[in-house]
Amino acid sequence: MFWNKKTPPRPFVSAVVAAAGAAERMDGIDKQRADLFGMPVVARAIQALDECGLISEIVLVCPVGQVAEYYELVRELGPCRVSMVVEGAATRQASVFAGVEVCSKQAEYIAVHDGARPLVTPEEVEACVEAAFEHDAAALGVRLKDTLKRAGGDGFVAATLNRDETVAIQTPQVFEAATYRQAMKVARCEERTYSDDCQLVERLGKKVYIVNGRYENIKITTPEDLIIARALLGCREGGEAEAFLGGGYDVNA
Q1: Which of the residues 83, 122, 144, 230 could staple to 51 if both were Cys, CB 3.0 to 4.6 A apart?
Q2: Is the pLDDT of residue 55 over 60?
Q3: 7-22: string of b/e by CB count within 10 Å (b at 16+)?
Q4: Angle at CA 190, nearest 5°, toward 189 and 191?
């Protein structure tokens, strides 16, 4: 006797795109809406999530007072899984929390991604989500190229960290939804602010699985990063990287 086995339904994954930062180190450039080969930076981040078949919905967190502008950005992007645009807050953590609060009640996993990481690929998103399905918490990360030092308060090196045991964590970072919401509750009760979402669940004693990422998945933080992103994207899409010409002088004898 033969029968068709039904494929089990995929877990519902809500992605929160954190794009509410003030871009204080961008010399006045609006990094989220800066042009990157004809698309805003944040739109490319949204597109990568949208092209991953494991993402069920996307919540976009934008700067205060710019909800209408970001809804227009989403409209120009075309049909996608963005379900809502909400205002952020004073810190990245509070902004992500604002996004998580409006995620679908069906959400079984929460994926948090920086809107300023436009070069992540759908394949990387998928690998991170799949790892979270298996381990409850996962994040993209890359091995450090440089030797990392811990600085002392006196301006001298206090210690040298083992480079083989250190990684630079990127996004997306994906978590089992109940775990993340519990971590949110604890952080609020303790009035603690963390630099990334992994620390929230680490505070609960949970382990975060590291998925091998790529060095190209940079975060746009300074104007130089935007130049690098344009060059990398130009190479990826088979175009030409932007060239910059300038003049200078040498005063050596």
Answers
A1: 122
A2: yes
A3: eeeebbbbbbbbbbbe
A4: 90
Sign of the CA dihedral 224, 27, 239, 218? Answer: positive
Which residue's structure tokens are 């981040």? 45
Considering just the CA atoms, what is the radius of gyration of the chain in Å?
20
- State the Cα–Cα distance between residues 172 and 210, nearest whole angstrom: 11
Question: What is the chain's length?
Answer: 253
Quote helix, strand, coil % in the chain, to nearest 5.
35, 20, 45
Alpha helices, H only, 143-219: 177-190, 197-202
CA 163, distance to chain mean position in Å, is 23
Query: With contact defined as beta carbons under 8 Å apart, do 210 and 202 qualify?
Result: no
Q: What is the largest CA-CA distance in the chain?
A: 91
Q: What is the pLDDT of residues 71-114, one digit of tens each?
A: 999 999 999 999 999 999 999 999 999 999 999 999 999 999 99
CB 15 within 8 A of CB 49: yes
- Tens-place pLDDT, residues 6-53: 667 889 999 999 999 877 788 878 999 999 999 999 999 999 999 999
pLDDT level of residue 251 (50, 70, 90 thresholds) = very low
Which token pair is 219?
């975060």
The pair of structure tokens assigned to 1 is 């006797």
Q: Where are the alpha helices (DSSP H) in the chain?
A: 41-50, 67-77, 92-101, 122-135, 177-190, 197-202, 223-236
